[in-house]
Design goal:
five-stranded mixed β-sheet; mainly beta; three-stranded antiparallel β-sheet; about 160 residues
């Protein structure tokens, strides 16, 4: 579970142990990355003053990306710490991207961690990956994967 009514914080901090599944609708809001099993979210929600809630935790999971040299699919592991501050909608400054608004639920304010997890996850996913450090890439003439051996272009003598 990644959504909490703020009333649960009246009794103290809340431990978070959940998962943002790869088929959750929050991923449909923009960039779609082929996620593995989803994003494992662990941490702690606590009050940070009147109308403010602080989340501190970790995000763990994997994503499949193309190698920047040979275009072979590579699994990239993301394991990062994250810290997010939520505030009542009336106290959120739209010019401050570091403070996220609490959403209004049926029983009052609630903290939905899913958009924050998505945002933090996308910031941590590497933009470029290599299948291995010594990747030889593709032949610029014929497009053959040079990691699998020399291509026909390399065997031809220059004219």
């Amino acid at each position: 579970m990644l959504s909490f009514p703020t009333q649960v914080l009246n009794a103290g901090a809340v431990l978070v142990d959940g998962k943002l599944d790869p088929d959750d609708k929050v991923w449909l809001e923009g960039d779609q990355l082929p996620l593995g099993e989803g994003v494992k979210v662990t941490g702690r929600l606590s009050e940070a003053g009147p109308g403010r809630v602080y989340f501190s935790g970790t995000l763990k999971g994997s994503v499949t990306l193309d190698c920047r040299r040979c275009l072979v699919q590579v699994e990239a592991i993301v394991d990062t710490e994250t810290h997010v501050l939520f505030a009542d909608e009336s106290a959120v400054d739209e010019d401050d991207p570091d403070v996220l608004p609490m959403s209004k639920g049926r029983s009052g304010s609630e903290i939905d961690l899913r958009p924050a997890v998505r945002q933090e996850w996308l910031l941590e996913v590497p933009a470029l990956v290599l299948c291995r450090p010594a990747c030889k890439g593709l032949c610029p003439k014929c497009g053959a994967n040079l990691n699998q051996g020399a291509c026909a272009c390399a065997r031809k003598s220059p004219e």
